[in-house]
Amino acid sequence: MGEPGGLSGARVLVAPDLAGAAELAAQEVVARGQAAAALRGRFALALAGGHTPRALHALLADPAQPFRARIPWARTEIFFGDERCVPPDHPDSNYRAAREALLARVPVPERQVHRLRGEDPDPAAAARAYEAELRAALGSEEGDGVPRLDLVLLGLGPDGHTASLFPGTAALEASDRLVAANHVPRLGAWRLTFTLPLLDAARAVIFLVAGAEKAPAVAAVLEGGADLPAARVRPERGELLWALDAAAASGLRR
Ligand SMILES: O=C1O[C@H](COP(=O)(O)O)[C@@H](O)[C@H](O)[C@H]1O
User: Fold this and answer.
1) How far from the centroid of its chain's Cα atoms is residue 213's Cα?
2) Where is the Glucosamine/galactosamine-6-phosphate isomerase domain (predicted)?
3) N or C: lower Cβ tally within 10 Å for the chain?
4) Which residue's C-alpha comes closest to atom 12 of ligand 1?
5) Could you tell me if the ipTM is greater than 0.90?
6) For the chain, how many structural domains are there in total?
7) Which residues line ligand 1 (CB under 6 A)?
8) Which own/partner contact pairs does 139-144 have at CB distance under 8 Å and 24+ positions apart?
9) Cα(94) to centroid of ligand 1, in Å?
10) Ligand 1 centroid, distance to 181 Cα (angstroms)
């Protein structure tokens, strides 16, 4: 596994394949979980949606791997960075995917799993309710009133979207909300998503990205100076890490 260096202020780690990149991310989850629990008595972790995190979820849940036993599950609060507007048992539900691969397999108390209500017929109301739930669970330790998640896991779409912040959509510009309902014309659908102020307040953000189809977006975000949604995630008081497989990193100059 190599480390091309800090591009765009980010630390970039490259593994040969998705399994290796997921392992890098799993090591970070353990280290940041242990540090957060020791320092603040709680580990606030936001999970990514989509397909890529499945490898990470499987690793974290596997009793034969070194991660599961080292994560302070009893003191972990689980959030979701985005959700599709579907019921929690729907095949497209990010919550369902995370529950099946991870949450049902680890000793995290049910009351500490905070899911976005994708089934709510009023997505704006679901977003407001989730922001209230997040604030109630985490409070805000600092003067700006924005809760700080200890670790936010994110993915990347080939169009440069992250969470459900798609190019050209309204939620990208939201500065007065931490969670938004976002209409995505390309999908003809609503999504629920964290906004940039909440992402940028995180103590750490890790993008886990794999596959050659993501390589142009990875290069554009990390080297191209592009104004893509993922390039706008800048945790100024936190750390930014990209865990890539070789295919996703193949468009990087170094
Ligand atoms: O729509 C989404 O896409 C991105 C990337 O998903 P992937 O399946 O290509 O890994 C994901 O990060 C986001 O959470 C998800 O809802």
Assistant:
1) 19
2) 20-242
3) C
4) 155
5) yes
6) 1
7) 48-52, 82, 94, 154-155, 157, 162-164
8) 144/201
9) 9
10) 16
